[in-house]
Amino acid sequence: MRTENQKAWFFVLPVLFLVAFNALLPMMTVVNYSVQETFGNNQFFWEGLDWFEQILRSERFQAALGRQFLFTGIILAIEVPLGIIIALSMPRKGFWVPVCLVLMALPMLIPWNVVGAMWNIFALPKIGMLGYFMNDVLGIHYDMTQDPLAAWITIIVMDVWHWTSLVVLLCYAGLVSIPDAYYQAAKIDAASPWSVFRYIQLPKIKTVLTIAILLRFMDSFNIYTEPFVLTGGGPGNSTTLLSIDLVKIALGQFDLGPAAAMSLIYFAITLAVSWVFYVVMTKDDQ
Amino acid sequence: MQKRALIPIVYILFLMTPIYWLVSMSFKTTNEILAGFSLFPQTFTLDSYIAIFTDPTWYWGYINSIIYVSLNTLLSVAVALPAAYAFSRYRFLGDKQLFFWLLTNRMAPAAVFALPFFQLYSSVGIFDTHLAVALAHCLFNIPLAVWILEGFMRSIPKELDETAYVDGYSFPRFFIKVFLPNIKAGVGVAAFFCFMFSWVEMLLAKTLTAVEAKPIAAVMTRTASSAGYELGLLAAAGTLTIIPGAIVIWFVRNYIARGFAMGRV
Question: Is the ipTM of this complex over 0.90?
Fold first, then answer.
């Protein structure tokens, strides 16, 4: 049991100070921009909530948000079941365990822009391995700079390649914590593999699985560098996810007001969904 | 050999294919790369690597990255340790709210913060220093470190603390001599994660630097645009960015699964 002690605040102060410096000050700048209009020369005019209304009504934002939800939905639907299956079929002990874990974690340790650049070249027709195999060996026309569908598939495969291991490692950590006695009991009861999964393994990995889904949701919803380097949001706007669109507005067009309003709406959505996850996750903790 | 061992094997092959291809490309000449597809380098060359190790703008990119990543790891773990101890041992006013607020900072898209960060660090006067990037990466690394360490500390029974006090240990001595050795694995894992996320994050690192502290990623984009398509060079530079991660992960290989579960298993 944790004891009540208000002095514990002193232990938290350095963290609070450092994170607040990085989080609150930039956040206030964003809030500031979001309610003002500027015509340069550092002159600002009060705009109220106009930008928010304008952004929420704009088709461009709705389209980007739709693509974002589609992307996050697809990768969660692929990575979570796939991650569970791989974790279930991994060896529990022995020499191969650390080797598997290290190899699986490797894609996550590559800088994100290198991941994007790597897949960009990997998918080039003629030169890249993927492009070569698709076009010249399998005879399927594949060019992600021309075809929106090919671009989407490439982005999704890239994300599956990059992040499925996170789900695997989390589930695996949950699975190895199950005592052998549970499995022996299941064997005596002649339980089918499905009921072993449903009544022993799944309840045990519930917490870590929630963390995995939470992390994958947050990170895929905020994804920027990899798809930007891979496709640049193209062809057309077909792969312009929310972050890419935001940076286009903020740094490309320098429309700071709308960009700031969009940032806040974006952040609010992420926060709301994550809060639901967090509540579900910590419900059993207490 | 069990049949189900096939699944991890196929998965690992899928993961290694693009990496293998990047590494093999880094040993090819530019002509060979542009001429078409080849699975192995036909004319094996180290030119790309030599070019990187003899050009200061290239290798300083790596050194800069390693400096700010190490600085950030030290800073994050050092401040996260007492905070995680407080969260795992005590209840205090607003503890849950504070913990959730810390986590929310991992949710903010870095793209949102790029411009305000630039303005903030320019006005404080540390733009284009290693410290600026190290501090900026604290935004998402400190919450992560607190989260991981709290998970590991929670599994240490409170009796340990009480016994130490009965034995006459002062708090700092207890923390360093008794408590830290018990959560060694947690500290290692937290440090690994800080290293990893600071190493892979490039948007803020690029935004906050110009010349002096330019990370390797910025050097790579410059080369990609100014010298046309020097794919071999790009592949070699990319290969070199994988190595630090591969080295640090080897140290925590036995704790990595538990670490990814934030110590919560």
Answer: no
